[in-house]
Amino acid sequence: MFTNEEFKKTFTDWSSVAQGMVARFRTVYSKFIDDPWIEEFVNELKSESKEFDLWWSMHNVKTADNRFKTIIHPVLCKLDFEETSLLVADNTSLIMNVFTPLAGTDTKEKIIQFLMSQTVLWHTYNSLNLFFH
User: Fold this and answer.
1) HSE on the CB side for 2, CA within 13 Å?
2) Bridge-partner residues for 69, per DSSP?
């Protein structure tokens, strides 16, 4: 999210998404403040990303909530999702993020069409592979 310039381009509003991620991460960080690994991880991000360093120093905290995210996929182009973060019941240190295609957009149809085309390609490849061996 912070160290890969190509990945940043997949978000239409990367700055806002990334700032929200830092604020939510700070909430989780507070539970593990004495863990040397997490402190090292934060220091690495601060040294590798001027944006992370700036936003981390702001001390913003945000709890998990429903969010909307638009990403630019290299093949499917613009995809709109609703992101929901859920705590895992057996281990509240784990968070599961669910991305659901946003209603009223063509995201669901694009994904289904893409997956169907990949399935056809896979079956075609396997059929040819069996035929030629």
Assistant:
1) 22
2) 81
| C-alpha span between 106 and 97 (Å, rounded) | 21
pLDDT tens for residues 22-57? Answer: 988 888 788 888 889 999 999 999 999 999 999 999
Above 80 in pLDDT, residue 131?
Answer: no
- Count of positions (residues) in the chain: 133
Residues linked to residue 100 through DSSP beta bridges, in sequence order:
82
**CA contacts within 13 A on the Cβ side of 56:** 18
Q: Per the structure block, which two tokens stand in for 97?
A: 């993020």
CB 26 within 8 A of CB 61: yes
Whether 69 and 81 have beta carbons less than 8 Å apart is answered as yes
Instruction: Tell whether the model's pLDDT for residue 16 goes beyond 80.
Output: yes
Please choose, from the candidates 55, 57, 48, 56, the residue with its C-alpha nearest in 3D space to the C-alpha of residue 3. 48
Secondary structure percentages of the chain, helix, strand, coil, to 5: 55, 25, 25
Report which of 8, 28, 26, 32 is spatially closest to residue 18, judged by C-alpha positions. 8
